[in-house]
Amino acid sequence: MVLKQDFIKNSHLEQHVIMKQNAHKNAGEIYEVIGNFKLSKNHYTQALKIKESDSWVWNKIGMIEYQRYGNLEVAKKCFEAAISTRPTLQKRSAGICPILVKLAEINFKLCDYTKCEELVDAIMTRSNAPNIDAYSKLFAMKMKAFFHSLKGEDSQKAEMLKRLEKTTGQPGCSYHDLDIIKSFYQKIESSFMKYGSKGIPLYDKQRKEY
Questions:
Q1: Which distant-in-sequence residues (6+ apart) come within 8 Å of 58 by Cβ?
Q2: pLDDT tens string for the chain (210 positions)?
Q3: β-bridge mates for residue 209, sequence order
Q4: Which pTM value belongs to this model?
Q5: Secondary structure class of 200 (helix, strand, coil)
Q6: Nearest to 66 by CA among 31, 95, 108, 94
Q7: Residue 153 CA to its chain's centroid (Å)
């Protein structure tokens, strides 16, 4: 008798699969909110097994790996997948900027400064889009000013800082308030105190990176 019910007769396998995936996504969010990141990640992973091209899930796992576990390489791959699984128009839009910010941070922490600057430039090209979020825009401008400073491009640095001040309406804006920049200078200072001027090379001759 149950098989004769309209719900069963009119149902499709695809609908049940989608419902199952959404159940895992919802459970993943619930466990993430209450701080059980192991179970959260498990449910997100199960959702990916059902639909591997779900950009939202890749981004969620990336955030857990990055912010909670500090697994930079794993998080990097997740964020890259979060972008690659999006439709072409979305890849070109400012909507992916928050993911680009995380990728830029990760590459910076991995000392791949060239890749980090490429990602910053990718955000900058979207900076005039109406839907760009404020943090991504300011992050890109601060990081660009930092890279100009690192390369001794003082005039470009000054111009970018002026642009930053104009955008925020606040004088004296700088990149030194970014956590990754603070950590960068702390690492240099610590290394200098321990090893001297050869503590941290800012330029890798083999990879041609800063």
A1: 48, 78, 79, 81, 82, 85
A2: 333 444 434 455 577 888 999 999 999 999 999 999 999 999 999 999 999 999 999 999 999 999 999 999 999 999 999 999 999 999 999 999 999 999 999 999 999 999 999 999 999 999 999 999 999 999 999 999 999 999 999 999 999 999 999 999 999 889 999 999 999 998 888 777 766 655 545 544 334 444
A3: 204
A4: 0.85
A5: coil
A6: 108
A7: 27
